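It would be a great kindness if you could assist me with a short task in structural biology. The matter concerns a single protein, recorded as an amino acid sequence and a row of C-alpha coordinates. Could you please explain, in whatever detail you think fit, how the C-alpha coordinates follow from the sequence? Thank you for your consideration; the sequence and its C-alpha coordinates are set out here:
___
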Amino acid sequence: MSLRLVMLRLKRRSAATLVGVTCLVIFFTTMLTICHTPCEHEGKKVVDRSIDSTSKDILVQTNLLITVMSAATHFKERNAIRESWAQELPNGAAVKFVIGNKNLKREVLENIGQELRVHGDLLILDDIEESFSILTKKLLSTLKWVDDHAKFNFLLKVDEDSFVRVENILNELLSKPMARLYWGFFDGRAHVHQHGKWAEKNFVLCDRYLPYAVGGGYVISKDLVNFVARNADMLTLYKNEDVSLGIWLAGLDINRVHEANFDTEYKSRGCYNSYLITHKKSPDELKKLQNNVNTLNKLCEKEHRVRLSYKYNWNVLPTQCCERSDPSVP
Protein backbone atom coordinates (compact mmCIF):
# COMPACT_ATOMS: atom_id res chain seq x y z
CA MET A 1 0.00 0.00 0.00
CA SER A 2 1.41 3.32 -1.03
CA LEU A 3 2.22 6.00 1.47
CA ARG A 4 -0.13 8.32 -0.31
CA LEU A 5 -3.08 5.87 0.12
CA VAL A 6 -2.34 5.40 3.82
CA MET A 7 -2.25 9.11 4.41
CA LEU A 8 -5.55 9.50 2.57
CA ARG A 9 -7.24 6.81 4.72
CA LEU A 10 -5.87 8.38 7.92
CA LYS A 11 -7.31 11.71 6.91
CA ARG A 12 -10.68 10.09 6.25
CA ARG A 13 -10.63 8.31 9.66
CA SER A 14 -9.69 11.54 11.43
CA ALA A 15 -12.52 13.33 9.72
CA ALA A 16 -14.96 10.56 10.64
CA THR A 17 -13.73 10.59 14.22
CA LEU A 18 -14.11 14.35 14.39
CA VAL A 19 -17.61 14.12 12.99
CA GLY A 20 -18.46 11.37 15.47
CA VAL A 21 -17.12 13.33 18.41
CA THR A 22 -18.99 16.41 17.25
CA CYS A 23 -22.20 14.42 16.98
CA LEU A 24 -21.71 13.05 20.47
CA VAL A 25 -21.12 16.50 21.85
CA ILE A 26 -24.23 17.80 20.12
CA PHE A 27 -26.23 14.80 21.35
CA PHE A 28 -25.22 15.15 25.00
CA THR A 29 -25.62 18.91 24.89
CA THR A 30 -29.10 18.49 23.47
CA MET A 31 -30.01 15.88 26.09
CA LEU A 32 -28.75 18.11 28.89
CA THR A 33 -30.74 20.99 27.48
CA ILE A 34 -33.86 18.86 27.14
CA CYS A 35 -33.46 17.59 30.70
CA HIS A 36 -32.55 20.93 32.17
CA THR A 37 -35.23 23.02 30.51
CA PRO A 38 -38.31 21.06 31.65
CA CYS A 39 -36.93 20.76 35.20
CA GLU A 40 -36.45 24.52 35.37
CA HIS A 41 -39.89 25.20 33.92
CA GLU A 42 -41.48 22.62 36.14
CA GLY A 43 -39.94 24.26 39.17
CA LYS A 44 -41.38 27.58 38.07
CA LYS A 45 -44.79 26.00 37.66
CA VAL A 46 -44.68 24.65 41.21
CA VAL A 47 -43.81 28.08 42.55
CA ASP A 48 -46.56 29.71 40.49
CA ARG A 49 -49.15 27.21 41.72
CA SER A 50 -48.07 27.81 45.28
CA ILE A 51 -48.51 31.55 44.88
CA ASP A 52 -51.87 31.17 43.17
CA SER A 53 -53.20 28.82 45.82
CA THR A 54 -52.23 30.98 48.80
CA SER A 55 -52.20 34.55 47.55
CA LYS A 56 -55.15 36.85 48.25
CA ASP A 57 -56.00 40.35 47.21
CA ILE A 58 -54.92 41.85 50.54
CA LEU A 59 -56.46 45.30 50.93
CA VAL A 60 -55.99 45.76 54.69
CA GLN A 61 -53.04 44.78 56.88
CA THR A 62 -53.15 45.48 60.61
CA ASN A 63 -53.16 43.87 64.05
CA LEU A 64 -56.70 44.91 65.05
CA LEU A 65 -59.25 45.42 62.30
CA ILE A 66 -62.32 47.32 63.50
CA THR A 67 -65.46 46.82 61.42
CA VAL A 68 -68.18 49.38 62.13
CA MET A 69 -71.63 48.30 61.01
CA SER A 70 -73.20 51.30 59.31
CA ALA A 71 -75.88 52.17 56.75
CA ALA A 72 -75.38 53.86 53.41
CA THR A 73 -77.17 57.08 54.37
CA HIS A 74 -75.57 57.41 57.83
CA PHE A 75 -72.80 59.81 56.87
CA LYS A 76 -73.34 61.88 60.02
CA GLU A 77 -72.73 58.85 62.24
CA ARG A 78 -69.60 57.80 60.34
CA ASN A 79 -68.24 61.31 60.40
CA ALA A 80 -68.78 61.52 64.16
CA ILE A 81 -66.57 58.44 64.56
CA ARG A 82 -63.94 59.90 62.22
CA GLU A 83 -63.93 63.03 64.36
CA SER A 84 -63.85 61.18 67.69
CA TRP A 85 -62.35 57.82 68.60
CA ALA A 86 -61.10 56.98 65.06
CA GLN A 87 -59.53 60.37 64.41
CA GLU A 88 -56.00 59.35 65.37
CA LEU A 89 -55.77 55.59 65.42
CA PRO A 90 -52.69 54.08 67.07
CA ASN A 91 -50.34 51.86 65.12
CA GLY A 92 -51.76 48.39 64.73
CA ALA A 93 -55.39 49.40 64.23
CA ALA A 94 -57.54 50.13 61.19
CA VAL A 95 -61.24 50.97 60.74
CA LYS A 96 -63.64 49.96 58.01
CA PHE A 97 -67.27 51.15 57.86
CA VAL A 98 -69.40 48.31 56.49
CA ILE A 99 -72.31 49.28 54.26
CA GLY A 100 -74.47 47.48 51.72
CA ASN A 101 -75.11 49.10 48.36
CA LYS A 102 -77.68 46.79 46.80
CA ASN A 103 -80.71 48.61 45.32
CA LEU A 104 -79.58 52.03 46.48
CA LYS A 105 -80.77 55.18 44.76
CA ARG A 106 -78.35 56.76 42.33
CA GLU A 107 -77.90 59.85 44.50
CA VAL A 108 -76.93 57.71 47.49
CA LEU A 109 -74.48 55.72 45.37
CA GLU A 110 -72.86 58.92 44.17
CA ASN A 111 -72.55 60.17 47.75
CA ILE A 112 -70.95 56.89 48.81
CA GLY A 113 -68.52 57.08 45.91
CA GLN A 114 -67.49 60.58 46.92
CA GLU A 115 -67.14 59.53 50.58
CA LEU A 116 -64.95 56.61 49.55
CA ARG A 117 -62.71 58.85 47.47
CA VAL A 118 -62.29 61.29 50.35
CA HIS A 119 -61.87 58.89 53.27
CA GLY A 120 -61.05 55.49 51.77
CA ASP A 121 -62.47 53.66 54.80
CA LEU A 122 -65.65 52.08 53.44
CA LEU A 123 -66.16 48.35 53.10
CA ILE A 124 -68.93 48.11 50.51
CA LEU A 125 -70.88 44.86 50.21
CA ASP A 126 -72.61 44.48 46.85
CA ASP A 127 -74.84 41.62 48.00
CA ILE A 128 -76.37 43.44 50.97
CA GLU A 129 -79.55 45.51 50.91
CA GLU A 130 -79.72 47.45 54.17
CA SER A 131 -82.47 46.46 56.61
CA PHE A 132 -82.77 45.11 60.14
CA SER A 133 -83.72 41.70 58.78
CA ILE A 134 -80.36 41.11 57.10
CA LEU A 135 -77.94 42.13 59.87
CA THR A 136 -76.77 38.56 60.32
CA LYS A 137 -76.20 38.13 56.59
CA LYS A 138 -74.28 41.40 56.66
CA LEU A 139 -72.05 40.14 59.47
CA LEU A 140 -71.42 36.90 57.59
CA SER A 141 -70.57 38.74 54.36
CA THR A 142 -68.24 41.00 56.34
CA LEU A 143 -66.37 38.05 57.86
CA LYS A 144 -66.03 36.44 54.43
CA TRP A 145 -64.64 39.68 52.95
CA VAL A 146 -62.22 40.12 55.84
CA ASP A 147 -61.02 36.52 55.55
CA ASP A 148 -60.34 37.06 51.84
CA HIS A 149 -58.92 40.57 51.83
CA ALA A 150 -57.37 41.37 55.21
CA LYS A 151 -54.23 40.29 57.01
CA PHE A 152 -54.85 40.75 60.72
CA ASN A 153 -54.78 39.08 64.13
CA PHE A 154 -58.03 40.25 65.71
CA LEU A 155 -61.33 41.62 64.48
CA LEU A 156 -63.44 44.00 66.57
CA LYS A 157 -67.03 44.36 65.41
CA VAL A 158 -68.86 47.41 66.75
CA ASP A 159 -71.99 49.39 65.96
CA GLU A 160 -71.85 52.95 64.72
CA ASP A 161 -73.21 54.19 68.07
CA SER A 162 -70.32 52.66 70.04
CA PHE A 163 -67.36 54.58 71.45
CA VAL A 164 -64.09 52.60 71.39
CA ARG A 165 -60.90 53.10 73.41
CA VAL A 166 -58.73 51.63 70.68
CA GLU A 167 -55.32 51.98 72.32
CA ASN A 168 -56.63 50.47 75.56
CA ILE A 169 -58.05 47.51 73.68
CA LEU A 170 -54.72 46.96 71.91
CA ASN A 171 -53.00 46.96 75.30
CA GLU A 172 -55.50 44.47 76.71
CA LEU A 173 -55.00 42.17 73.72
CA LEU A 174 -51.36 41.76 74.71
CA SER A 175 -52.51 39.55 77.58
CA LYS A 176 -55.18 37.68 75.59
CA PRO A 177 -54.76 34.43 73.65
CA MET A 178 -53.77 34.94 70.03
CA ALA A 179 -55.90 32.01 68.88
CA ARG A 180 -59.51 30.96 69.38
CA LEU A 181 -60.40 34.18 71.18
CA TYR A 182 -64.03 35.25 71.62
CA TRP A 183 -63.95 38.33 73.85
CA GLY A 184 -66.99 40.36 74.84
CA PHE A 185 -69.77 40.96 77.35
CA PHE A 186 -71.49 37.57 77.48
CA ASP A 187 -75.09 36.69 78.17
CA GLY A 188 -76.22 33.13 78.77
CA ARG A 189 -79.76 33.48 80.06
CA ALA A 190 -81.49 35.63 77.44
CA HIS A 191 -84.94 34.46 76.41
CA VAL A 192 -85.60 33.78 72.75
CA HIS A 193 -87.60 36.61 71.19
CA GLN A 194 -91.07 35.45 70.23
CA HIS A 195 -92.52 38.77 69.07
CA GLY A 196 -91.42 41.94 67.33
CA LYS A 197 -88.77 42.53 64.69
CA TRP A 198 -86.27 40.25 66.47
CA ALA A 199 -88.67 37.30 66.76
CA GLU A 200 -87.01 33.93 66.04
CA LYS A 201 -89.84 31.79 64.71
CA ASN A 202 -87.56 28.91 63.73
CA PHE A 203 -85.31 28.81 66.80
CA VAL A 204 -85.54 25.20 68.06
CA LEU A 205 -82.23 24.71 69.88
CA CYS A 206 -83.40 25.80 73.34
CA ASP A 207 -85.84 28.10 75.10
CA ARG A 208 -82.88 30.44 75.80
CA TYR A 209 -80.20 31.75 73.50
CA LEU A 210 -76.86 29.98 73.77
CA PRO A 211 -74.14 32.06 75.48
CA TYR A 212 -73.07 34.90 73.18
CA ALA A 213 -71.20 38.21 73.35
CA VAL A 214 -73.70 41.03 72.98
CA GLY A 215 -73.56 43.02 69.78
CA GLY A 216 -72.44 46.53 70.74
CA GLY A 217 -68.88 45.28 70.39
CA TYR A 218 -66.90 42.04 70.56
CA VAL A 219 -63.52 40.71 69.46
CA ILE A 220 -62.75 37.46 67.67
CA SER A 221 -59.37 36.16 66.55
CA LYS A 222 -58.52 35.58 62.90
CA ASP A 223 -58.86 31.79 63.12
CA LEU A 224 -62.49 32.12 64.23
CA VAL A 225 -63.14 34.57 61.40
CA ASN A 226 -61.68 31.98 59.04
CA PHE A 227 -63.81 29.20 60.55
CA VAL A 228 -67.03 31.15 60.04
CA ALA A 229 -66.05 32.24 56.53
CA ARG A 230 -65.15 28.71 55.42
CA ASN A 231 -68.41 27.27 56.75
CA ALA A 232 -70.66 30.15 55.73
CA ASP A 233 -72.82 28.07 53.39
CA MET A 234 -73.77 25.69 56.22
CA LEU A 235 -74.66 28.26 58.88
CA THR A 236 -78.18 29.17 59.95
CA LEU A 237 -78.85 32.91 59.86
CA TYR A 238 -80.86 33.98 62.91
CA LYS A 239 -82.36 37.46 63.27
CA ASN A 240 -79.79 38.63 65.83
CA GLU A 241 -76.24 38.76 64.48
CA ASP A 242 -74.65 38.52 67.93
CA VAL A 243 -76.81 35.53 68.85
CA SER A 244 -75.95 33.91 65.52
CA LEU A 245 -72.21 34.24 66.07
CA GLY A 246 -72.54 32.71 69.54
CA ILE A 247 -74.39 29.74 68.06
CA TRP A 248 -71.92 29.30 65.19
CA LEU A 249 -69.06 29.12 67.69
CA ALA A 250 -70.96 27.20 70.39
CA GLY A 251 -69.49 23.77 69.73
CA LEU A 252 -65.89 24.90 69.36
CA ASP A 253 -63.09 24.57 71.89
CA ILE A 254 -62.37 28.30 72.20
CA ASN A 255 -61.44 30.95 74.77
CA ARG A 256 -64.60 32.78 75.79
CA VAL A 257 -63.55 35.81 77.80
CA HIS A 258 -66.21 37.89 79.53
CA GLU A 259 -65.33 41.59 79.72
CA ALA A 260 -67.23 43.79 82.18
CA ASN A 261 -65.57 46.85 80.63
CA PHE A 262 -67.44 46.26 77.40
CA ASP A 263 -70.56 48.39 77.96
CA THR A 264 -72.17 46.84 74.91
CA GLU A 265 -75.69 45.80 75.92
CA TYR A 266 -78.90 47.12 74.36
CA LYS A 267 -78.69 50.10 76.70
CA SER A 268 -75.69 51.64 78.42
CA ARG A 269 -74.96 50.83 82.06
CA GLY A 270 -73.58 54.32 82.68
CA CYS A 271 -70.06 55.72 82.40
CA TYR A 272 -66.87 54.32 83.93
CA ASN A 273 -63.36 55.37 83.03
CA SER A 274 -62.37 51.73 82.76
CA TYR A 275 -64.79 51.11 79.88
CA LEU A 276 -63.13 49.88 76.70
CA ILE A 277 -66.32 50.21 74.66
CA THR A 278 -69.52 52.05 75.53
CA HIS A 279 -72.66 51.65 73.44
CA LYS A 280 -75.82 53.59 72.53
CA LYS A 281 -74.22 56.98 72.00
CA SER A 282 -75.44 59.71 69.64
CA PRO A 283 -72.96 61.42 67.29
CA ASP A 284 -72.77 64.37 69.67
CA GLU A 285 -72.15 62.06 72.64
CA LEU A 286 -69.31 60.35 70.75
CA LYS A 287 -67.64 63.72 70.23
CA LYS A 288 -68.22 64.66 73.86
CA LEU A 289 -66.56 61.47 75.09
CA GLN A 290 -63.58 62.11 72.82
CA ASN A 291 -63.33 65.64 74.17
CA ASN A 292 -63.21 64.18 77.69
CA VAL A 293 -60.35 61.90 76.65
CA ASN A 294 -58.48 64.78 75.02
CA THR A 295 -58.94 67.36 77.76
CA LEU A 296 -59.40 65.33 80.95
CA ASN A 297 -57.42 62.23 79.95
CA LYS A 298 -60.39 60.11 81.00
CA LEU A 299 -63.68 58.95 79.49
CA CYS A 300 -66.18 60.36 81.97
CA GLU A 301 -66.56 63.81 83.44
CA LYS A 302 -68.04 61.97 86.39
CA GLU A 303 -68.49 58.25 86.73
CA HIS A 304 -72.07 57.12 87.21
CA ARG A 305 -74.16 53.95 87.09
CA VAL A 306 -77.51 53.45 85.40
CA ARG A 307 -77.81 49.77 86.31
CA LEU A 308 -75.69 47.00 87.75
CA SER A 309 -73.33 44.86 85.72
CA TYR A 310 -72.05 41.33 86.40
CA LYS A 311 -69.16 38.93 86.14
CA TYR A 312 -70.09 35.91 84.07
CA ASN A 313 -69.98 32.70 86.12
CA TRP A 314 -68.81 29.91 83.80
CA ASN A 315 -69.13 27.30 86.59
CA VAL A 316 -72.93 27.24 86.72
CA LEU A 317 -75.74 26.69 84.25
CA PRO A 318 -76.07 29.50 81.70
CA THR A 319 -79.42 30.54 83.18
CA GLN A 320 -77.58 31.26 86.47
CA CYS A 321 -74.57 32.92 84.85
CA CYS A 322 -75.26 36.58 85.17
CA GLU A 323 -76.41 37.89 88.53
CA ARG A 324 -76.43 41.69 88.76
CA SER A 325 -75.58 41.88 92.43
CA ASP A 326 -72.01 43.18 92.75
CA PRO A 327 -71.79 47.00 92.76
CA SER A 328 -68.01 46.84 92.33
CA VAL A 329 -68.36 45.59 88.74
CA PRO A 330 -68.36 48.54 86.28
